[in-house]
Every structure is written in structure tokens, then in C-alpha cells.
Write a structure and sequence with these properties.
152 residues, alpha/beta, Rossmann fold, 7 helices
Length: 152
């Protein structure tokens, strides 16, 4: 678990969409923690979808019930993740993205949750930082989405 993630400002206005897996990786025991922390240093603006709050909450739940983490430890990580999202990310309503995400997801057989982040990235002309290798592989196998998702 990381404590506080420092955010460095750069001269350019670069933006990246953080999916729930990338955000969770910053605060919960994860093999991608250091790579995600390093990957976000090159950006000065982060965006995400409001479902990230719930999905990170699900990671906290799993860490206690499946991975037997202490509830206090997981709850503290959850609070830090929520604070990070609130303090550092432009949070976009899933409702605003839903119809386009539904269209993208059904056309390309991509879960609606993932499609929301992909649509946000397309609208912002940005990339999605994810630790989900299946999503990364899936998007790179689809011409219109190639390069949209990046791994740390």
C-alpha cells in the first residue's frame, strides 16, 4: 500500500484516463504499484469515470474477504484512493458516457465498465492507463481502439 502519491506538474497539459485497476494499484498491494506510480508522473491531468469509486471499493472488499488483509488496512487504502480520485482527477459521470459506451461495448464485445473508460479517453483524445492485460490485449486487437489502452 502506498501512502501519498506525489503529483508533479509538467509544462505541457497532458491528460490520461485512469481506470479503476490503475487507481487501485496505487493504494492496494499489487505487482503493478510502482509501475503505475511511475507512469502517472509524466502527466499533469487525470480523468476517470465515477464508477472508479465503486470499483475501488470492490478492490478493498476483495482485499479483506478474499486476500485476508486486515480490515483497517484495507479501509485506510480505500480512503486514500477516494481522496486521490477526488483531489487529483476530473471525474466524469458514467451517465454522460453510457450510450456511447454501450455502442462501443456491444460492437466490440467489451464490458460496459471498460467501455466507459475507453469512451472517455476517446473524447479527451487521451489514453487509458490500465493494469488489466485482457483489456489492453483486446483494445490492441481492434483497429479503431489500437493504442487507446496502455499498460504501466
Amino acid at each position: 500500500m502506498s501512502s501519498s502519491i506525489p503529483i508533479q506538474q509538467s509544462a505541457s497539459l497532458s491528460v490520461i484516463v485512469l481506470d479503476s485497476s490503475a487507481i487501485a494499484s496505487l493504494f492496494f498491494k499489487d505487482r503493478s504499484n510502482q509501475r503505475v506510480a511511475q507512469a502517472i508522473q509524466g502527466y499533469d491531468k487525470f480523468s476517470t469515470v465515477d464508477i472508479a469509486f465503486v470499483e475501488v471499493g470492490s478492490v478493498a472488499w476483495k482485499s479483506v474477504l478474499i486476500f485476508k488483509e486486515k480490515i483497517e488496512t484495507s479501509f485506510e487504502a480505500l480512503k486514500q484512493a477516494i481522496d486521490f480520485i477526488q483531489d487529483n482527477c476530473d471525474v466524469v459521470s458514467s451517465r454522460e458516457l453510457l450510450s456511447k459506451a454501450f455502442e462501443l461495448g456491444t460492437k466490440n464485445n467489451i464490458q460496459i465498465y471498460d467501455s466507459l473508460f475507453l469512451i472517455l479517453a476517446k473524447q479527451l483524445r487521451a489514453k487509458v492507463l490500465t493494469t488489466d492485460e485482457r483489456l489492453y490485449n483486446k483494445t490492441n486487437s481492434i483497429k479503431e481502439l489500437r493504442g487507446t489502452a496502455v499498460l504501466p
